[in-house]
Design goal:
9 helices; single chain; alpha+beta; Chitinase A, domain 3; four-stranded mixed beta sheet; four-stranded antiparallel beta sheet; 44% helix
């Protein structure tokens, strides 16, 4: 079992890995990469401390094995640091992911073929009432205005183009709100989700909120993407499964390392495991 010292006030407790202290300053800096969920005070601190503890543990193991860092390019002009390279090299040498079985991938595909469709096409129009996401009062005003215009459209749907010209903040107002032909991925997710579920020829029942503000949407036509053949989605399925198996193997490996280590200041078994690839960037 790992020797973990429980704590009451985590931020005031020394965090260490096999005697190596993880500084409070490092934890505070790393915490910026872990936004705190609502109602979970201290979550960001624990997540940051956990990530740095596991990173230090991996680095210690890499050095014990005598690994020499061999940085690789992350993208043109950007290379791994020596510590990032050590973690990657250690994981590559130690992990043994479960081999991918193509029959399992086929079964996954056959179970939900609707998940593997080509892009859908939409013909739509909208009226945009802009509102910055950081301004609640402005958004409330935009929502109220959108509801007022929508009420008019529910009485007279044929006035959509006229009302778009009068109220929309989108350049499409000059075409009566027409957006032309849209494909999957052309709009923000919530806008596309609305297009995917609205009946053709209908106007949205309520203003749709996005980061841009509020939209009244009219869906004129929709052509749903065809189900793609297994052979065409196999490479993506294999890549996703390989990633998943690699993460599982990484978590098993890190759990085994933590069990043999002396860790103070945080219970690593009480924090969700981090993706091994993220540890190199911590």
């Amino acid at each position: 079992m790992s020797r973990v010292i429980p704590i009451k006030r985590e931020q005031d407790t020394t965090v260490s890995v096999n005697g190596v202290v993880v500084s409070p300053e490092a934890i505070a800096s790393e915490a910026q990469n872990h936004p705190m969920p609502k109602g979970k005070p201290g979550w960001a601190w624990r997540a940051a401390a956990h990530a740095l503890v596991m990173r230090e543990l991996l680095l210690q193991c890499a050095r014990e094995k005598g690994l020499t860092p061999e940085p690789e390019a992350l993208m043109p002009g950007q290379w791994e640091t020596d510590e990032e390279a050590l973690i990657r090299q250690l994981l590559e040498s130690e992990l043994s992911p479960t081999p991918i079985d193509e029959a399992q991938l086929r079964a996954l595909y056959d179970q939900s073929p609707d998940k593997f469709r080509g892009p859908s096409l939409f013909e739509a129009a909208h009226i945009l009432f802009p509102a910055p996401p950081e301004d609640p009062s402005f958004r409330a005003k935009a929502r109220h205005e959108a509801r007022g215009v929508l009420a008019q459209l529910q009485e007279q749907p044929g006035r959509f183009a006229v009302l778009a010209q009068e109220h929309s903040a989108c350049p499409s107002k000059d075409q009566g709100g027409l957006l032309g032909q849209l494909a999957s991925g052309d709009t923000v997710p919530e806008f596309e989700a609305a297009l995917a579920t609205m009946p053709e020829g209908s106007i949205s029942e309520a203003p749709l909120e996005t980061r841009y503000g509020f939209h009244i949407i009219r869906l004129d036509a929709r052509v749903r993407g065809a189900v793609l053949p297994f052979e065409s989605v196999l490479p993506a399925l294999r890549e996703a499964q390989e990633k998943a198996e690699w993460v599982k193997a990484g978590r098993r490996y890190m759990s085994a390392l933590a069990t043999q280590a002396t860790i103070t200041g945080i219970d690593v078994h009480d924090t969700p495991w981090t993706d091994p690839e993220q540890l190199a960037r911590a």
